């Protein structure tokens, strides 16, 4: 099963989201337009906007509200990626140079700010105050979570809890904004809103764990960035944590994140990718995915519900 | 005349804004709280929140809406300062180290993002969609203007126009957001809204020109940062532009911004501060200030109107 099959119930409106994203780059400052075009096209899976559209399919589906919201969610996502790549000094994303490496950190910083503002403006165009407030809260959660992360030293006892809080703030939060806002903007009953929010959170957790696993076991050509990038940047994700937990006598992870020389990073990546922790991480991702599916079971049965279930499967089986 | 006299008609509510800003720093992530406290306290003139409050005094003054809006405007302003200081690599602001120099650029970037989000959230709490939309537009104008600025090479023929567009986007835009939103949130008639917007724009232009003059002629102890910082960072402001216009045979400015060695920057600053262009810049600032005053004349006569007039005078006479 591929994404375009899953997206079938909303493919026309997803195309409108794509057009809206292209239209964002039509500004009268040529340099800004160039940066926007670069950041907004090429390689995104469009999972978050699709979630907003699909979760609008359980009551009064209104593309005049859902297409802008889906666009806003993708703009916000892109803004966070552009700023993340500055913070992490990442050279490559989705197989091409990041904005910060191609255009410099200053322009990337300002581009991210512009994208936040544009996202807020497009979200505001729905005229729905509840959604606008959730939108602002999501951005607070994401940036506040990243600030917190910069102040945490590696501590094996707390590492797993910190990791879950971190990926909840950086990824699951935006997934649940997408799903919940879709339900709200289609005037769904509160139990539907709650179910979509629950689905979005758990799907986001599964999605991020898979991303973190693929950073160890993926193929560079598919993932679009070098294997082991996270550990090389000092980010301790679930595979490293489970490895450290299962080798309490071994200081490998702690020393790697303290030194970060290329050779010891490569050795740690090699050890982890050939250890049972990869399977354990996949099992944890599958568990979040099945929680997402259980939340969906409370929704009315239609093609969008099936798409949400399929997406929960797709997300934990993907290779990029 | 000092600012606290001018702020007298709104002093109680300005104190509430101050308390709201302090409350922003009460978050459950200690590092984030520390960064917020550092950025939000100490040394700000609070001109923008005062403008929002004062411009709410011409119809149905409602502190329940105006205090949050004034807070949101100051949060947005602070966010742009934190990000600006990264872009400009500024070591000092208001006499103390910038967030980026004291805490690192990554934390400053994330703190700025959090402040944008918090500002949007507080603005959204007014429940006024027109104001929320203007808020997002202002952030687009500010960040888009800065992107544009990074792509402009010094060209004497266009320099003055570019400068006015630049300071309109980076400063006057936020002043007019403050004034206009104050009028809108007090349900003022459209002609009052227009007059406050016009006032805010012209006051912001005058304010920025004074800032740029003080960068040449101010005392470091009063201005809170080293004299000549702008030119040292490659920013060509009105004094440099007027100097270059009046010395078309002299390539001083062009060579200074190309080389930026400390000695030639110091020489240029010395030449400019002792030239007639400082007086010419002050005359241009005074002209914007008087346009601001003419806009105010359309407003009902009360103590807030007098404060706006006094502020227009204060702004062009200040030494810091």
Secondary structure layout plus pairing:
The structure is a homodimer of 320-residue chains.
Chain A: H1 3-6, H2 11-24, H3 30-40, H4 47-54, H5 63-87, E1 92-93, E2 96-97, H6 99-103, H7 105-124, H8 129-150, H9 156-185, H10 190-217, H11 220-223, H12 229-232, H13 238-246, H14 252-259, H15 262-273, H16 277-296, H17 303-317
Antiparallel strand pairs in A: 1-2
Helix pairs in contact in A: 2-5, 4-5, 4-9, 5-7, 5-9, 8-9, 9-10, 9-13, 10-16, 10-17, 13-16, 16-17
As laid out across the biggest beta sheet of chain A, the strand order is 1-2
Helix-strand string of chain A: HHHHHEEHHHHHHHHHHHH
Strand content of chain A: under 5%
Largest sheet of chain A: 2 strands, antiparallel
- Outline of chain A: globular
Into which percent range does the helicity of residues of chain A fall?
A: over 70%
Oligomer: homodimer
What number is the mean pLDDT of chain A?
Answer: 94
CA-atom Rg of chain A in angstroms: 19 Å
The CATH class of chain A turns out to be Mainly Alpha
**Termini Cα gap of chain A:** 14 Å
